[in-house]
Amino acid sequence: MMMKSVQRALTFGLVLAVSGMASAAVVLKDGHPSKYFVKNGDTLWDISGRFLQEPWQWPEIWQINEEISNPHLIYPGDEIRLSYVDGEPRLSVKRGVEETVMSNGTVKLTPRVREIANDQAIPAIPASAIQSYLKEGLVVDRQEIIEAPYLVGGRDRRVIFGEGDTVYARDTKTQWEGLEQGYGFYRTGEQYVDPDTNEVLGYEARQIGLGRVSSHDDDMISLRVTDSSEDLRIDDRLFSTEDRRVRAVLYPSAPDTKIEAKVIRFFDRLNSVARNDVVVINKGLRDGLKEGNVLDIYGQGEVVRDRQQGDMVQLPRERTGSMVIFRVFDKVSYSLIMESTRPIYMNDIAESPAGSY
Predict the structure, then answer these.
(1) N or C: more exposed end of the chain, with fewer CB within 10 A?
(2) DSSP string of 144-181?
(3) Which of 61, 66, 60, 93 is nearest to 78 (CA)?
(4) Superfamily holding 251-351
């Protein structure tokens, strides 16, 4: 029986934990190594991809070594070993060693003491690829936009503002109930529309600046603009700037129910995306998705003419990659492309991994 892992952590501003994973069969990759030494720049996904056909299934065969301190974290210098228990594959970690030169010139090898911060462990997925989306990306509905506090002006009768300026914002809805010290300035951007139903799924809110509250008077506050990526303007909205960098917890698992989604948004790409690019799909919390869910990606088959029959036919779809959901809103989700064998296009299909439902 395959071991089910609980409480697996891998932290570098991100934490990888495992809870209730789908029981799809684990298949070792052809030509897999028997051991691997962890290096700086590695991610858990890349390491597990050396051993497994499906890297997200790592926790299915992970074996904790209770003899070492904090066996849930993996650091550069550690050794990942593949072994078999009752005929079933197991992966385990052996801590790296450090060399100590003794007074007589001999070298003593001892297990490395882990008195270092957890955020020096290797990440589950490339943290740098998603950090800005964790901090700055929001998807809101029309009512949230209408009710959000908004910028009404600044000093010297100016209409645009930037870093170092003092600006004023108004909250007519709740009059700053639960006032915070910091806020983000946001501008409404892309409208997300379901390609199948034409339902408006939400609006992208882009963070264009940060501000610190300096004073409060009824429904008005004064803020010092501490950062701006572009000019701030009257009517820009304000939302809380909770720090999501260390709160992001990924659960590498198949969705609890079968998911069939489509890619509906690229960032900074025109025609296609590939590994380490971020996309938006048209499914979210209401569909049962959660952070850490893994989806396979399929390219739509080309429509061609059958020269024998004279009609148009669609070629079979092909699996072109996989993605990990790292941020979930009500009706859409942000995903990181983890693997891509071919370019990934708008309206490509993202669905639950085969064998997990």
Answers:
(1) N
(2) HHHHS-EEEEEGGG-SEE-TT-EEEEE-TTTSSTT--S
(3) 93
(4) FlgT, C-terminal domain (2.40.10.410)
